[in-house]
Design a protein that fits this description.
Helix content is 72%, strand content 0%. The protein has 241 residues and is mostly helical.
Amino acid sequence: MTKFTHDFVMDAVRHGLLSTAYGVRNGAHYGVKIRAPHALVMTLLFKSDQPLRKNFEGILKMTFVHARNLGGFCLVYKGLLALGRALHAASGTPLLTPPGTPAAAWHALLAGWVGGMLIWAKHSSVNEQIVMYLFSRILVGLVKLLAKKGIHPFSKWTFPQAYPYFAAAVWAIVMWLFEYHPKVLQPSLEQSMRYLYHDTNAWSRDCRELAPSAASVAVAALILYVQRGKWSQLFDLRARL
C-alpha cells in the first residue's frame, strides 16, 4: 500500500468513525424527541385511569427503546458504510460518492438489511410501529420511482392525480378491517379507532360526553382568532390552512 493510499484509507476510517458517532447521537436524540410526546399523548388518552408511576415508567421505557434502537441502527448502518468505504479505498477503487454515503448502491441495501435484522427484527410495539410507518412510505416511494422510470401504468399518473383514489381506498379498507376483523390491526390503531367509532355508540343519560373537551374548545377559539376574517377557509376541505 502506497503512502497516498494509506493516508486515503485513514481519512476514510477517521471520517467514518466520527460520522458514525454523530449518527448514534442524532439517532438517540431523534428517538427521544419523537417518542416521548407520542407516548405521553397516548397515555393521557387511553391510560389516564392507571397509576401515575406506572404510566410514567411506560412512557420512559418506550422512549428509551425508540432512542436506543434508532441510535443502534445508526451505529450498524453508518459503521458498515464506513467499513465499505475503507475497503474500497484500501483496494484502490476510486470513491465517487461523498463521505458518509455508500461507496456502492448495494452497500446501502446490505447495511440496511444487517441493521434491520440486528435492531428491528425483534417484534415489539415500538418496532412494529416504526417498521409499518416505513413500509407505507417505501410503497409510495417505489411507485413514484416506477413512474419516474416511465414504467406503465405508473407513468400515466402523477401522485397528486392518484392520491384521491389512494386515500379513499386506504380508508375504505381500514374501516372494513376495523369493523369486521379488528384484531388484525396494530393494537394502538385499533384502540384509537375504537375510541372514535365504537365508544361513541353509547352515552350517559345526561349526555355529558357530548360536551366538547377543554382542549377542543381552546383550539377552536385560537384558530378562530388566528383566522379572523377568513373563517370560510376553515370549512373548505380543499384549502390549505
